[in-house]
Amino acid sequence: MSTGPALPRQRRSRETYERVLDAAEAEIGELGLAGAGTRGIAARAGLSVGALYRFFPDKTAIADALAERYLGDLMPAYAATVADVAPGTDVGAVVGELVRSASALQLSHPGYYRLTEELPPERGDSPAHRVREQVVDLFADALRSAGVTSVPDAELRRVVGFCVETVRHTLVRSPRDAGRDAVVDDLALMVASYLRARLGV
Q1: Could you read off the pLDDT of 74-124 as tens digits, one per residue?
Q2: CA–CA separation, 114 vs 24, rounded Å?
Q3: C-alpha dihedral over 185, 82, 149, 187, to 10 degrees?
Q4: SS3 assignment, position 189
């Protein structure tokens, strides 16, 4: 994943930058990465295409910036949730909190999640690849802290990666109405059960 342009320093420029990303979340969330265009994103942001290009040279840079913004929102919340994990921690409760956080993030980052469907995070060229790797690292380290010490690193990362992708796929397809809470609860139970079965936590 290439990194997008640096966040502008001037307040007005930062506000415009964020407005473009908000517009991109909506445009890509509705049309997908392939269907979205810089003209549509610029129009949603209330800018000319030329003004948009001052911040982002192309749609790839916008996708990279969406991934960076998502990571910036995700890591503090997830890191705080797993910070106190230790042997004896109720991993099921931790998983439940993480899945609920992921659900809230998916609703506020529809463009990011839609682009992960077109460019899956497992692919090294996906804007979401670095996000996925950091999330897998964080969860694998938390499981080590919870007492999972006998599982080889490659196997632990495979198990965690499977959980991460299962949560992502399910949330993208889950309803946005009152039924969503039940889906999220079931998803958390499923992931926790899988981790107990595979890792004994």
Answers
A1: 999 999 999 999 999 999 999 999 999 999 999 999 999 999 999 999 999
A2: 11
A3: 10
A4: helix
The token duo for 90 is: 């109720």
CATH topology assigned to domain 59-199: Tetracycline Repressor; domain 2 (1.10.357)
Q: pTM of this prediction?
A: 0.88
Neighbours of 122 (CB within 10 A): 14
- Residue whose token pair is 């916008």: 62
Sign of the alpha-carbon dihedral angle for 33, 39, 44, 45:
positive
For residue 7, CA distances in Å to 3, 12, 118 come to: 11, 12, 26
DSSP per residue, 73-109: HHHHHHHHHHTT--TT--HHHHHHHHHHHHHHHHHH-
Domain boundaries, the chain: 59-199
